[in-house]
Design brief:
- By secondary structure, the protein is of the alpha+beta class.
- Among the domains are: about 60 residues, TATA-Binding Protein (2-Layer Sandwich), CATH 3.30.310.40; about 120 residues, Hypothetical protein, domain 2 (Endonuclease III, domain 1).
- Helix content is about 45%, strand content about 10%.
- The strands form two sheets. Strands 1-5-4-3-2 form a five-stranded antiparallel beta sheet, with helices on one face.
- A hairpin with a 2-residue loop joins strand 4 and strand 5.
- Helix 4 crosses helix 15, helix 5 packs antiparallel against helix 12 and helix 11 packs across helix 12.
- The chain is globular, with a radius of gyration of 19 Å.
- The C terminus is likely disordered.
Length: about 280
């Protein structure tokens, strides 16, 4: 049975840019829109100008997921005024940071180590198809991200068969830590940014970068500024061009101060702009 669509007002929003910028990895093109999961709920989303179409009954869920309440114009006004940031800001108008489920976000970024975006998406879809709960929208079959308990019941060999490689051990250990209550994501949500980052780094495969990704994309800490290969290259070449020896710690301290209270948005804009403008031969992950 076809499900009726409802309209949501969505100014300052670009659905394709938001879903294709490398922050979330399982949504796929479907007809005039996109099809994916918001937690355990299947969702279709289609943009028509400043209006977003979603299944009736999911308006509030979709609006929250796509962060349509973020005052984007005011947030962007806090970005530093420099050529690199201005170019990224102009190129990424309408890109919003979605609110991902805590566990799904952590697990996905654990699997992202040394992987390009298409590979991360492939791993996510494989894990979902094999071990996630099935759902359906208009005859299309979708799968939720597998729960910690579902993955904790597996062996490392099962996860390696999903193309995780060495990441399988970390994902399995982390799933078991969370399933067993050794680390509580609900408790992490109640901590300050610094304390939450420390607690997250107790998990296998979670260092400063993955912890920052989890805080930004999963826990809504918009000042978090993950530093990956792309961002480190940008910081070194743009902001420290004449200094050869700049430690990662120094880059973190600089980013926290320079990019302000919504540094996570600045980071994603810089990241996506770099990925889409760097000559193909110079790309690496």
């Amino acid at each position: 049975m076809s499900r009726a669509l409802a309209e949501i007002t969505a100014p300052e929003f670009d659905l394709a840019l938001t879903l294709g910028c490398g922050q979330v990895f399982h949504w796929r093109r479907h007809g005039e829109g996109w099809l994916g999961m918001i937690g355990d709920t299947p969702c279709y989303a289609e943009q028509r100008g400043h209006t977003l179409l979603v299944p009736r009954g999911l308006e509030s869920i979709a609006a929250d997921y796509f962060a349509l309440d973020h005052p984007l114009q005011k947030m962007r006004a806090t970005f530093p005024d420099d050529p690199a940031m201005n170019a990224a800001d102009e190129a990424c108008r309408g890109l919003r940071l979605v609110r991902q489920p805590h566990w799904e976000c952590i697990a996905t970024f654990i699997t992202s180590a040394q992987k390009a975006v298409p590979h991360i998406a492939q791993i996510s879809h494989t894990l979902r198809t094999r071990y996630g709960r099935a759902a359906e929208w208009n005859g299309e079959r979708l799968f939720a991200y597998p729960t910690p308990a579902a993955l904790a019941a597996l062996g490392e060999k099962d996860l390696r068969a999903c193309a995780l490689g060495y990441r399988a051990k970390n994902l399995l250990r982390t799933a078991r830590m969370i399933a067993d209550g050794e680390v509580s994501l609900e408790a992490v949500a109640g901590l300050g940014d610094h304390e939450a980052a420390i607690e997250l780094q107790r998990l296998a495969g979670v260092g400063p970068k993955v912890a920052a990704c989890a805080l930004l994309f999963g826990f809504g800490r918009l000042a978090a500024f993950p530093i990956d290969v792309w961002i480190e290259r940008i910081l070194r070449t743009t902001y420290f061009p004449k200094k050869r020896k700049v430690t990662t710690k120094r880059l973190r301290e600089f980013s926290a101060r320079y990019f302000g209270p919504f540094g996570g948005y600045a980071q994603q804009y810089l990241f996506h702009h770099a990925r889409t403008t760097t000559p193909r031969g110079n790309k690496s992950k």
